[in-house]
Amino acid sequence: MAKRIKLIANPVAGKGARNKIETACRYLTDAGFSLDLTITGARGEAERAAAGARKGDFERILAAGGDGTFNEVVNGLVPSSTPLGFLPLGTTNVLALELGIPFDIEKACHIFLHGEARPVNIGAANGRRFILMASAGLDAEAVCRVNLVLKRWTGKLAYIISSLRVLAGGWSIPIQLTLDNGEVVEGNTVVVSNGKLYGGKFPIAPEANLEEDALDVCVFKKLGWCSLTKNLLRISRGKELQGSDVLRFKVKSVTATGDNVPVQIDGDYFGKLPMTFRSCPDELRLVMPASRAEPMRNRCQGK
């Protein structure tokens, strides 16, 4: 009897998504697997499909789409021991960049079938899970304001335009953070990272590790035109953020408060502060390339 795979796919996640989904289906069935396919049509359907898959006898589960699709699948699936893989179809696909999953569909499918499934840490924002990052402040306001039609046609450019509009209006709403050690700090933008990358190939949290029971917090004390430009130039050259206007912490939980400050998780708007962000280990097994899994194991073992 053929082994079963659950495929949850977003047909509007990036250009040519439907053709890529068909390619993936052919590859998986040609490999001898029985495929249970869900094509999503609205927000929330990927999460519901993943919740249903928890009760099924599936060898592995594959989320095909962007980071937002993967976020839905994670929230529907966890906690679960069934290996979960990612097929990048979306606008940015930060998770694929984080793990080293190729954008070639057949190569990504090969990794899904033959890669190593490892337990990873995920974050939670007031209970809602995120795999990559959450943030509050200027960038979250840009995500909140982004034109979805423009995003579909221009991809990342839509976020750049939205960010410029937020900056032009001035962003100065204060955010107060209470760390898990009781320390209190303030800024106007905060990024809580579970992975190293942000918004693409930008290494905003180089010390973050998906297998570590912790989150990396970056607080911008006053993020505006000058500080944003300076820090973007640094991380675009692969350098760490630094300066008196940037604070860094590693925590298991942090609570943020602010007056009407928006929050985004994994690139999608998710309400407003106050909100508590915490680390959630051992809820998910993520399929990654074997070449990626080995270095992560060595770091965790102190080799």
Topology:
Blueprint (H helix, E strand, L loop, with lengths): L3 E6 L7 H14 L3 E6 L5 H9 L6 E6 L1 H11 L6 E5 L5 H6 L5 H10 L1 E10 L2 E3 L2 E4 L1 H8 L2 H7 L1 H14 L5 E5 L4 E4 L1 E5 L21 E6 L4 H12 L9 E6 L1 E6 L3 E4 L2 E5 L2 E14 L1 H11 L3
Parallel strand pairs: 1-2, 1-3, 3-4
Antiparallel strand pairs: 5-6, 5-16, 7-10, 7-14, 8-9, 8-13, 10-11, 11-12, 13-16, 14-15
Task: Describe the protein in words.
With 303 residues, the protein is of the alpha+beta class. It contains 10 helices and 16 strands. The protein has helices spanning 17-30, 45-53, 67-77, 94-99, 105-114, 138-145, 148-154, 156-169, 225-236, 290-300, and strands spanning 4-9, 34-39, 60-65, 84-88, 116-125, 128-130, 133-136, 175-179, 184-187, 189-193, 215-220, 246-251, 253-258, 262-265, 268-272, 275-288. The strands form 3 sheets. The protein has a 6-stranded antiparallel β-sheet with strand order 6-5-16-13-8-9. The chain has a 6-stranded antiparallel β-sheet with strand order 12-11-10-7-14-15, with helices on one face. It has a 4-stranded parallel β-sheet with strand order 2-1-3-4, sandwiched between helices. Strand 1, helix 1 and strand 2 form a beta-alpha-beta unit. The radius of gyration is 19 Å and the shape is globular.
Task: Give the strand order of the largest sheet, numbering strands 1, 2, ... along the chain.
Answer: 6-5-16-13-8-9
Mean pLDDT rating: 87
How many E-type strands? 16
- State the shape: globular
User: In terms of per-residue confidence, which ranges show pLDDT below 50 for 5 or more consecutive residues?
Assistant: 297-303
Amino- and carboxy-terminal Cα gap: 42 Å
- The share of residues in helices is 25-40%
Order of helices and strands: EHEHEHEHHEEEHHHEEEEHEEEEEH
Radius of gyration from CA coordinates:
19 Å
What percent of residues are in strands?
Answer: 25-35%
Structural class: alpha+beta
Largest sheet: 6 strands, antiparallel
Question: What's the number of helices?
Answer: 10
